[in-house]
Design a protein that fits this description.
alpha+beta, globular, FAS1 domain
Amino acid sequence: MKKLSIAFITGAAALALSACSGSETASTTGDDTTTVDTMPDDGGTETVPIAEENIVQIAQGNPATSTLVSAVTAAGLGETLSGTGPFTVFAPTNDAFAKVDKAALDGLMKPESKDALGGVLKYHVVAGNVMAADVIKMINDGGGKAAIKTLNGELTASMDGDKVVLTDANGGKATITGTDIKASNGVIHTIDTVVMPKG
């Protein structure tokens, strides 16, 4: 199995979508801020504008990730994803969070569950820039599977047809539904299911 070895970020890099807890509200209103990088048919490189918004601001400005923003705020996670990075975030959409048992999710959002919620969120974050093409190459190089080290354990990436599937420590599966959403300090891929760390 091909292993993605990306060093853990410590200290300020614990995780931090929750600059969203501040009063600032960002939006993504043009191709100059949030861009999707695609590989051109000729195999060359495509020039895309440099994103001006960081990961936190993009999450805040996307209605489809409002539950994620609320979860990160509830976890009290600091400024990391507003910082230099780079970070790769596998961001569950609102529909992904809707699959989680409501009582379990409500429990995680309580102040006393702050550490547990933080652990779940860190399981969705990788230190470094990992583009969709990188993940696919790792899967191919690994004979069909690749281990991706997150800030709280490992995910296993594999292909299901033309889709990339992430398998968590408990055997749960999430499909990557959106790729290479570039931020000033990293990249976001959206997923259709919340992945859960062991324990």
